[in-house]
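Protocol check, entry for the methods section draft. Step 1: assemble the input record (protein sequence plus ligand SMILES). Step 2: submit for complex structure prediction. Step 3: store the structure tokens unaltered in the notebook. Ligand used here: adenosine-5'-triphosphate. Step 1 record:
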Amino acid sequence: MVSRIRTVAFQGIEVLDIDVQVQILGGVPQFNLVGLPDKAVGESRERVRSALYALGLALPPKRITVNLAPADVLKEGSHFDLPIALALLTAMEVLPGEELSRFVALGELALDGALTQVAGVLPAAVNASAHGYGLICPASSGGEAAWAANVEILSAPTLLALINHFKGTQVLTPPEPKLAGGGSAAMPDLADVKGQETAKRALEITAAGGHNLLMLGPPGSGKSMLAARLPGILPPLSATEALEVSMIHSVSGLLTDGGLLRQRPFRDPHHSASLPALVGGGMRARPGEISLAHKGVLFLDELPEFARSTLEALRQPLESGRAVVARANAHVTYPADIQLVAAMNPCKCGYLSDLAMGCGRAPKCGQDYQARISGPLFDRIDIHVEVPAVQAADLSLPPAREDSATVRSRVAAARQAQAERYAGLKIEGERPVVVNARAEGALLDKVATPDAAGQALLSEAASRMQLTARGYHRVLKVARTLADLDGDAGVRRLHVAEALSYRRLAPGR
Ligand SMILES: Nc1ncnc2c1ncn2[C@@H]1O[C@H](COP(=O)(O)OP(=O)(O)OP(=O)(O)O)[C@@H](O)[C@H]1O
Ligand SMILES: [Mg+2]
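Step 3, stored output:
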């Protein structure tokens, strides 16, 4: 007789159904695990053996075969321990197979039989709910699993608790849905930044319309400081976004306290990050920083210090909103709908525009340094802003009047206006647009065509500044956001003028 337990494997954030089959036959005592397990899964034999021993159960001295089907899908991760143990226990007739067949199980076992947290519980729970199954997971992952609708969740601290539940001696209580900690109160405030009014305005526009931003300025002018204050003015994730973002973090094992994220992610990888770390993939395919920043901000500080090939790899995801990673046997797609925020110095020493401190190699040194960023990447950035050095006089001023809460409320109002407008213009079958930065083609023409004076200004500037077609459209998107911040129904000349002022030419032009 073969006993079976359902579990899952992950391909990107997609969930694949896996069947764990256990057969116990007479013969030389053996414990074999087949079905393309990776190293961590292969080692699960030892953990399962020890966990059962801790319960006072020895493996039967027979030929035990565990098969993970389908056999051609690579099984990665440590979450196969629990389904293997459960399938063994049903084969040994300790647990009722009939009842367990209603569940999908995942979890890692410690040697003493405790269940430890694993990656991917949230997508597994959502998948179980879609197929009408229940879910068995470790207690520490229960808060995450409970967010899936209409699914019976058994989250147990130990294997013994699970056995007792099925025997009816100690019934498990269903877990409560949990939220990840950290409110906006803990975030740094914009009021700490002295002066830099242009940069603050650019930050507000960036937040309001979901645009990409580049800050350029000498060392110590507050670029990193400003970027760190962006999460504090962004609106929280909507319910569907929160689920989507949390799924990606769950697959990466980053929902450490087992709660749903509600704040927009802000990822700031170091410039030594490799291409797989940024875009995804690698030995064990994992979402990259760009996907972990989905629906939030990817902040690249010291932009020219990133490897050129790494930056170029961002070009395609920036346009399509997803990262496609090719693996040996499959293509894995991760969502990557992000806002790119970058900061850089104008040259290697950083004081290009400062005559007193500038080096003797200016302006060549600045051109060389800025040319590390390719034209196409520059072109994808809607807002370029200079962050000049702060004057000592500014630093001694009292804190700025406007704090993050004030700016956040203006951003929220502008986002609300966008959401309402795009909800009315929704086109069947297309990716829903919620911010101006994502409006394309006919939709953009419809919502962002400026008045006659604005159109004249834009046409003239486009030829004088040699704007690319993309650059032209990006100016329109920023102008639309400026109109939304003003509460205007139409885009006017002054919005176009301000949007154009944020468009900087690529270096070398
Ligand atoms: N506008 C400002 N108002 C108040 N403090 C500031 C301002 N600009 C810089 N500072 C102070 O200087 C420190 C360094 O600023 P920050 O790290 O943001 O500089 P940066 O522009 O990122 O420099 P670098 O190009 O060297 O990375 C801040 O932690 C803060 O204490
Ligand atoms: Mg910095």
